Amino acid sequence: MKLFRTLPARRLALLLAAVAAVAAAAAVIAVTASGGGGPTPPSRPLAQAVRDALAAPQPEGITARIAFTNRLFPSGALLGNVGSALMSGASGRLWITNDGRGRLELQSNAGDVQLVWNGEHVTLYDASSNTVYKADLPKQGRDRGVTASLADIAKALTGLREHASISGAEPADVAGRAAYRVTVSPKHDGGLLGSAQVAWDAARGVPLEVAIVAQGSSAPVLELKVTGISYGPVPASDVAISPPHGTKTVSLGSKAGKAGHEGEAAKAAVGLVAVRAVADFPVVAPSTLVGLPRRDVRAIGNGSKTVLVAYGRGLGGIFVVERKAGPGAGTGGMLSSLPKVSVDGLTAHELATQLGTALQWRRRGVEFVLAGSVPPAAAEAAARDLR
Which of the residues 51, 156, 188, 321 has an alpha carbon 20 to 30 A from that of 134? Predict the structure, then answer.
């Protein structure tokens, strides 16, 4: 298994963006300029620099100091305990073994955050809430050590450039390592995303910086960067955690079992007519939403209890989740602790970030969750259209 460049690297980027984001998610940018004065690699075409990274020798392990920046949530966007390293950003450490296991530790005054993963599971321990979150990871194909050819990489980059602007491989000094840095910006349908940036060790192919920048901003909204790194064997004890006694455990999902009859019916319900026929509540799905055309309607989950409606395309799209509301007059739900806003005379809870907005409200016995990489005003206008 190619350490940190195939399976672990993709998981690390996904998990850290979600810790976001998690989000999120995520996924993970204008990275701050490196300290300078250190080594820089020779100039290379981007395709060559990528191929060299993929073919680089496999480290026996990685030990690193890291810094995590989170400017995603503006002041007042969240209520309750926001002292967690997940919300405020922090410095910390990272360990990765050569068999795909790893641990990331973020340290703050509110307590540590520990993220541990292996080939099958991921565990997040947040000391500020004394809670452990656990989830299964999707199965991955076994890496057979095959590296894409230079022609294949060039072809993939050409296809990507149809949708995004991609910089060259810019030589840089990152954490005292000769590195290449690349910036990617969406050409259209990018929502509030301005750019994404990644830097990697030119000799090892190991990611050293990952960040996200919002439109109209120069500082990263989310950033994970290595400030010091060494390569060598990592003891198994460095990639394990033992949460204190009495810690609350929350499961974030497990591998799906066999679907029952209702699950198969829900899976088959695609299109507005079919979805309305199986849903147990009146589905609201206008043909357009704030000028975005309706693209998809489908029932999800067992028993057709939840409906997903998608508008527009790309990162600039809007997604609406609808389901029959439970008992009680309050809005409830996963966003119920967030600030309140008025939407067409109804009370909604709103999560506003620099990369997008989420709203939750109830109307006529139906619970709605609307999310998109749009400003709060656009999200609220879309919610008013869902009558």
Answer: 321
